[in-house]
Amino acid sequence: MARDWVASLRQASYRGVPFYVHSDGIGGGRRLVQHDFAGGEAQLIEDFGAAERAFDVDAYVVGDESDAAAQALLAALDRRGPARLTLPLSGPVVAQAVDWWREWRLDKLGYCAFILRFVRGGSPSTAGISAHSVSGLAAAAVSSLSAAIAGAFP
């Protein structure tokens, strides 16, 4: 019996805001650093783990309320931090919107197209943590440790 592909597709959404998908692509890889040595034929390759997983999506909203749906999607894309992304073939992942482009055309009333880019990662609970706040926490920890060491040696 043939599979009903259309019935198996998930409703695409970001932050719970639904949209439709023409196509999506997923990219990834490894973060590798290659070290070459002078006068040698050998090289060292260090593997620093998985590269960020990227999702490129050709999306759209359509219908009598497409203007409101487009505004809702834009608001979701503009919000800071990672959130739940669901694509038709992919289960939900935590991802963050990196870039987006909306296109509206007079000859396609009731239809707004989007080109979206997301990267996987983060956690919705850590969305407010930045490099600046992490460095501040690290500086406070070093200061506390320095004070503790200084107090141990009169």
Quick recap:
The protein has helices at residues 5-8, 66-78, 131-152; strands spanning 12-14, 17-27, 30-36, 43-50, 54-62, 83-86, 93-104, 111-120. The protein has 154 residues and is α+β, with helices and mostly antiparallel strands.
Describe this entry's structure for a reader.
- The chain has helices spanning 5-8, 66-78, 131-152, and strands at residues 12-14, 17-27, 30-36, 43-50, 54-62, 83-86, 93-104, 111-120.
- The protein has a single domain (7-129), classed as Elongation Factor Tu (Ef-tu), domain 3 (Beta Barrel).
- It has 3 helices and 8 strands, in the order αβββββαβββα.
- With 154 residues, it is of the alpha+beta class.
- It is extended, with a radius of gyration of 23 Å.
- The chain is 25% helix and 42% strand.
- The strands form 2 sheets. A 6-stranded antiparallel beta barrel has the order 1-2-5-8-7-6. A two-stranded antiparallel sheet has the order 3-4.
